[in-house]
Amino acid sequence: MPESMTGYGVGRASSAQLDVTVELRSVNHRHLDLRVKLPGALQSLQQSLTAQLRKALDRGHVEARVRVNDDTESTSQIQLNLPLAKELKAALDQLAAETDLQPIDHVRQLLQQPGILRVEATELDAKAIKPVLETACADALKQLMRHRNEEGERLAVDLQGRVETLKALHSELETSAPEVLSGLRKRLKDRIEDALKGSTVDPIRFEQEVVMLSDKSDITEELVRLRGHLQTCEDALQSQRPGKRLGFLAQELLREFNTIGSKSNSLTVTERVVTAKVEIEKFREQALNLA
Hints:
Elements: E1 7-14, E2 19-27, E3 32-37, H1 46-56, E4 60-68, H2 70-74, E5 76-80, H3 82-99, H4 106-111, E6 117-121, H5 126-195, H6 203-215, H7 220-236, H8 243-263, H9 267-287
Parallel strand pairs: 3-4
Antiparallel strand pairs: 1-2, 2-4, 5-6
């Protein structure tokens, strides 16, 4: 069944030291447009994560967000710059001695000086996280694909209904075409006869001219092509990723119905063509949602 481009999936995986969550959001796009957001310490894993996503997805704007559990990310160490602290203490002691100032509270003064204490966050181990991240991403992809397939199935039902409507309109046009053409030939013949009253005209030549003029309004070729396009639409709806193909077929269907409309002066044909064009536009819009 067809696959939609709209979906959502979350995957989680854990190890003894960490917990990784991958969140995927997918919407329509002409091509595959990936946006991957990783914690700064895991930027080295972006290429492998992008490759994993590209292997599973063909079209759509996909946002991937990766989160690592807070305990792992927030682990930090306090570093004391002891040599600098000793130098500052000596300087403060000298200042107090030479200026007859009161003894200085060294601890408070030293802690206020930049560079004495430094908080360093423990960096994430990308190598250790990679297999956990891949597992979480695979889980998120599985959920995303399930949503995309469910949505694709609903879209396929809607699109098949529109194909059936177009087939019915095609059948009506096919049934009425000979009658419409016959009526056109009769009207042409009557008009030419009125214009040539009192003139001598070769009857065979006269009939040939009428047939040639009426053939310009013959829609048989367009109806044959329409039947083929509609059958191809039904075949495409049985495949997994028919979006681009259905978009092209919608253009071809519209082209054929436009040609039929331009060829015919029949009100009945015109009404059916207008109805078909509205249906094709709805078909095209829905097909844009398919991968």
